[in-house]
Amino acid sequence: MNQSEKAELFGTLHRKGDPVVLYNIWDAGTAKAVADAGAKALATGSWSVAAAHGYADGEKLPMSVLVDTAKSITSAVDLPLSVDFEGAYSAEPEGAAANVSKLLEAGAVGINFEDQVVGGGGLYPAERQAARIRAIRAMAEGKGVPFFINARTDLFLAESDLSKHAGLVDEAIERGKAYAAAGGSGYFVPGLIDPALIEKICAASPLPVNIMMRTGAPDVKTLAKLGVGRVSYGPGPYRSMMEKLKQEAAAIYSPL
């Protein structure tokens, strides 16, 4: 498949009620392992890629390293790849689009693109974020690739008090509609785990909804019944792998 065909395939995998499951990777080696396990597509997690290179999350990883990582993955595995691109390393629409074009050239067919102000505070106003999405969509259309923009809102992730999540749903729905109108392909709501709230957003969203697995989240079968179109695992796989590595190393180095 060429890149456009991979992008088209990736989009078709997002079906409400029959979600694509993405066990997030961070390099070519983990990409091969997950592909061999039966994955239909691949997705990086920004936290994991950064940590694997010794950096903190939040665009601390040099963008050139992230682009090179994407190139190494697309060279090693012939599956659609989505890259967690945080805020696209630019607050401005034009800069965001130019940066995403580098990932597209690296062979990626999609991105996660968040509405929090990376390194700042709070979220961009919905229309400002929509303008950034429009710029990315226009760039991708100019290159003839049906690029998958997984528009992420950080409303729920930023609010650690789960009892307040119900009060954020209306804004989340409105943001989702604005991002869809701007050219978004999917709607990512990390941090949300309440089944009733997930179902409400799925019912109202014009885009397939992405839920991130975390402690307390429903299982994949339940999420499918709620109408979810994409399930991802974020930094979970990296943390699990590193914990296993530390345990095995500790067993070797502990005194006999």
From TrEMBL:
Q: Which UniProt keywords apply?
A: Lyase, Pyruvate
Q: Which domain of life is it from?
A: Bacteria
Q: What Pfam families would the database entry show?
A: PEP_mutase (PF13714)
Molecular function via GO: lyase activity
Query: Cross-referenced InterPro entries, in alphabetical order?
Result: ICL/PEPM (IPR039556), Pyrv/PenolPyrv_kinase-like_dom (IPR015813), Pyrv_kinase-like_dom_sf (IPR040442)
Q: Does the keyword DNA-binding apply?
A: no
* Tagged with keyword Lyase: yes
Instruction: Return the protein name.
Output: Isocitrate lyase/phosphoenolpyruvate mutase family protein
- Organism of origin: Rhizobium sophorae
